[in-house]
Amino acid sequence: MSARCPGETHTESAIDVVVIVVADPDHVVAGDQPPECVIDGWKTCADGLHILILAMLMLLGLHITVAVVHRGVRHDASQDSPAMIDEKLEPIFDDVVRRNAGEVEFHQAVHEVLESLGPVITKHPEYADQKIIQRICEPERQIIFRVPWRGDDGEVHINRGMRVEFNSALGPYKGGLRFHPSVNLGIVKFLGFEQIFKNALTGMPIGGGKGGADFDPKGRSDDEIMKFCQSFMLELYRHLGEQTDVPAGDIGVGEREIGWLFGQYKRITNRYESGVLTGKGTAWGGALVRTEATGYGVVFFVEEMLATRGESLDGRTVIVSGSGNVALHAIEKAQARGATVTACSDSSGFVHDPAGLDLDVLKDVKLHRRARISAYLDEVPSATFAERGNIWDVECHVALPCATQNELIRRDAEALARNGCIAVAEGANMPCTPEAVQVFNSAGIAFGPGKAANAGGVATSALEMQQNASRDSWTFEHTEARLAEIMKNIHQTCFEYADRFDAPGNLVHGANIAGFERVATAMVALGLV
Ligand code: NAP
């Protein structure tokens, strides 16, 4: 089996090779990059020598994935032509690509939304007059800053921090912070852009933003991570506020890091401003269910998708990529609803047990020991571990990608379809490539896009803000019931909008159009700002 570092072109110690061929450099980077290959992070022109090297790598048994960048959007090669956007929107997309050179994940996220918006601009000419789409694609503010810190060995390190405050038409900027070495402006912008529509879909008064740093917490001591968080907040604090910008966690940022960030904010500002960060510990202003919300919400959403087809999760097999916050809680809720979760992963590989994974052991390995997923076998030797294996080759009824962007590509989608999968929901942000989504649609597999399916986390963050503002705290049962209701409403909204815009059952179009309409209506009302 092959291994991959999804969405990234560079993989340390990878045995897999991703080749990106830039098919139309004029569109991609306004001519400042020649046609090229990126071979496992190594950029080169696609000349004869490199083709020879590729051939040798293939002979050595390495798996080669070829992706073509066409009009700024990454596609798996040899696939159907990319989905089209309305010709009225094409110049807008070209402009986004030109103005945000090289930010391929951002281009991909914008393209995916614009694919849905053709009928909307026909119905609402005022959006074109007000240049709403151009404005929505341009962040209101982008902040990039240096984060210096000193390691335990005395060495000085410099990271890059950023916060993209994308759109505040519906409320304060809201979206998580990601600490991962792959973080760059294009990734933060794609996440912030998605967040605008996701937050609108929740029906809560929150705008969209996202942030993070190219800091790798792996292998760092607690003290080093705390020092990094404090240095990061020393700049970020001046841009935050419970009415302005309210971050939460994301990859590499959990309750522990939110605590250190909040402590530093409180120290600098001399204000106990609980509502400035969400995902806090319940002993100091956090909401019950926030930790579980994204994973639980994904499962609630899957139940709604299945119900429209007269199906349920009971007795079904489920596989979940990742083993972080979203994945573990998706596993927990899927098991509670009668499903057998047979596989989950981390970036080192996946564990598989047809009899079902033991969640207590998983939590001990990942949350308490912070170990690699293979340590699961120490406690459950009957399970198997596939080092750098591809989890999507495991048979299942329901697949929940809950790790990272572009982790599920066309051939994975084909494997899932072949193996009898009936539903896929994105716990992570944009984990499925556009071609994978096309395969799901053609195969009649129910598909829940991330901006709808994983909106439970941010919705519960908004509930945390409500509780902070009223100095109140709700019970677990009450908060979970609110979450379930919100996820049901989001599904219903996406379903109805898909129908109304002649794409019955297509929740991608439904989510994009419904989210966009809410934001666009507010932007028109607020004038040219
Ligand atoms: P997390 O707690 O840091 O967990 C991420 C998990 O994904 C880890 O197990 C990580 O493994 C794994 N992973 C990363 N790259 C991988 C790869 N290439 N192959 C397999 N596994 C990989 O992060 P999270 O909060 O669960 O977030 C996961 C996704 O959900 C992200 O896309 C995030 O944006 C999205 N999301 C999160 C929330 C939220 O409330 N947390 C809300 C909405 C959406 P390693 O430990 O080996 O790196």
Q: Helix content range of the residues, please?
A: 40-55%
- The second-level CATH architecture of the domain at 293-453 is 3-Layer(aba) Sandwich
CATH superfamily of the domain at 293-453: NAD(P)-binding Rossmann-like Domain
Q: CATH class of the domain at 293-453, please?
A: Alpha Beta
Bound molecules: NADP nicotinamide-adenine-dinucleotide phosphate
Largest sheet: 7 strands, mixed
Number of helices: 19
CATH fold category name of the domain at 293-453: Rossmann fold
Strand order of the largest sheet: 14-13-12-11-15-16-17
Radius of gyration: 22 Å
Q: Which residue ranges are poorly predicted, with pLDDT under 50 across at least 5 consecutive positions?
A: 1-18, 22-46, 68-73
Name the overall outline: globular
Give the rounded overall mean pLDDT.
89
Secondary-structure class? alpha/beta
Counted beta strands: 17
End-to-end separation in angstroms reads: 52 Å
Query: Strand percentage, roughly?
Result: 15-25%
Notes on the protein architecture:
- The chain has helices at residues 25-29, 48-59, 90-99, 104-123, 125-129, 132-136, 185-202, 222-236, 255-269, 290-307, 325-336, 359-368, 376-379, 410-418, 434-443, 450-453, 456-469, 476-500, 507-526; strands spanning 16-22, 37-39, 42-44, 63-70, 73-76, 141-150, 156-167, 173-179, 208-213, 245-248, 317-321, 340-346, 349-352, 384-387, 398-401, 423-425, 446-448.
- By secondary structure, it is α/β, with parallel strands linked by helices.
- Among the domains are: 139-284, Rossmann fold (3-Layer(aba) Sandwich); 293-453, 3-Layer(aba) Sandwich (Rossmann fold), CATH 3.40.50.720.
- The strands form three sheets. Strands 14-13-12-11-15-16-17 form a seven-stranded mixed sheet, with helices on both faces. A five-stranded mixed sheet has the order 3-2-1-4-5.
- The protein is globular.
- The structure holds NADP nicotinamide-adenine-dinucleotide phosphate.
- NADP nicotinamide-adenine-dinucleotide phosphate is lined by residues 5-6, 249-252, 294, 321-327, 345-348, 402-404, 407, 427-429, 454, 457.
